[in-house]
Amino acid sequence: MQTGFRFQADTLQAFVEALLGYAGSEPEEARLVADHLVSANLAGHDSHGVGMLPSYIRSLSQGYLQLNQHASVVKDAGAVVTLNGNSAFGQVAAHEAIQLGIEKARQFGLAAVALNNAHHIGRIGYWAEKCAAAGFISIHFVNVVGDPMVAPFGGKDSRFGTNPLCVVFPRKDGAPLLLDYATSAIAFGKTRVAWHKGIPVADGCLIDNQGLSTNDPGVMHVPPLGALLTFAQHKGYALATLCEILGGALSGGKTTHQDTLQKSVDAIFNCMTTIILNPDMFDAPDMQHQTEAFIDWVKASPHDPAQPIQVPGEWEANNRQTRLEQGIELDESSWKAIGQAALAAGMPQAELEAFTSRKM
Ligand SMILES: NC(=O)c1ccc[n+]([C@@H]2O[C@H](COP(=O)([O-])OP(=O)(O)OC[C@H]3O[C@@H](n4cnc5c(N)ncnc54)[C@H](O)[C@@H]3O)[C@@H](O)[C@H]2O)c1
């Protein structure tokens, strides 16, 4: 759908940095958050891109998100380190946690880094890509604290968050293999995008407040609220449970239950436990060749030539290439909400209009 709101990535980067500067972020914080959000749009995950800004600005004004804060080490046990995110921008706290994890993995060959109490850490693939760029494999278990949106298998109301799992494997030549998804049938942000666009979601993703199957994304945005379902029925539910425990409990953070329920839908807090492995520490000289042989093998499966078989991470890599060339499209309703957030943060109307006029 062509809306006319299509921006170059660097325009959006400058816009987000300016918006956050007005909100009170130091330049480095604004740069890290902007890079993360625009990267999510470039990867094709608009649910975790600049469309998050209205929610972040509301969380800030409600006193949940804390500006210019940093992660602090709570316990350093050598290869295992636990950090408190101190309600900082997740894009800052997770950046610091992952940088430390990479340093530890360089030192020890493997590392586990647990981050609790961080504001929304966004698209988890971004953190995995940092590990892959450093040459490492990583596995990320994430929970969303006290923000129930997903029903347990067999249940009729929401009990936990969209708890993503992410795994990356760096390839010598080519984009890393990247598994990165919510354990809900679709990410919550995708219901927001569908709701803004006025389109239904696929079968098997949502139930209404009566526990009945529905395609209406509005059930996640207009009370009485329904719930997302887990992907792959009991299998997704089992994975979501382990993301909740490894992400929320093992990290020294919190799991979702009556005592931890958030009062605001904009207060999104994540905990993440990350395992980082140096592949060179394994006795596997054939590892890259075996990987490429497998990829060639699966891609050779008979298929419609118009729809090539992809490997995990390829969808994002292709989107990145296309969107760097053709720009990032935002629907009118999302851009309007982002503009209102910019004004609320203190951006003058004239500056917002100047950015809007830079659409392609
Ligand atoms: N911070 C949070 O609280 C939070 C919560 C939930 C989700 N998220 C993020 O939301 C984003 C979107 O999650 P989602 O569940 O909508 O993801 P999704 O359903 O779009 O799945 C993405 C995954 O599927 C792979 N994929 C896509 N098409 C493929 C194909 N044809 N062949 C092989 N693999 C393919 C991608 O490479 C990627 O690994 C993720 O980046 C996730 O980290 C964050």
Walkthrough of the structure:
The chain has 360 residues and is of the alpha+beta class. It folds into two domains: 6-184 and 230-280 and 336-356, Ribosomal Protein S8, Chain: A, domain 1 (2-Layer Sandwich); 194-229, no CATH class. It has helices at residues 9-23, 27-42, 53-61, 90-108, 124-133, 188-197, 234-249, 287-299, 314-326, 332-345, 349-356; strands at 6-7, 72-76, 80-84, 110-119, 137-144, 165-169, 177-181, 206-207, 213-214, 227-228, 269-277, 328-329. The strands form three sheets. A seven-stranded mixed beta sheet has the order 2-3-4-11-5-6-7, with helices on both faces. A three-stranded antiparallel beta sheet has the order 9-8-10, with no helix packed on it. A hairpin with a 3-residue loop joins strand 2 and strand 3 (80-84). Helix 1 packs antiparallel against helix 2 (27-42), helix 1 packs parallel to helix 10 and helix 3 (53-61) packs parallel to helix 10 (332-345). It starts with 5 loop residues before the first strand and ends with a helix. Bound molecules: nicotinamide-adenine-dinucleotide (NAD). The site of nicotinamide-adenine-dinucleotide has 29 residues, from helix 5, strand 5, strand 7 and helix 9. Residues 45, 47-48, 120-125, 142, 144, 162, 164, 166, 178-182, 186-187, 190, 270, 310-313, 315-316 line the site of nicotinamide-adenine-dinucleotide.
Note the main attributes of this structure:
binds nicotinamide-adenine-dinucleotide; seven-stranded mixed beta sheet; 360 residues; single chain; 16% strand; Ribosomal Protein S8, Chain: A, domain 1; three-stranded antiparallel beta sheet
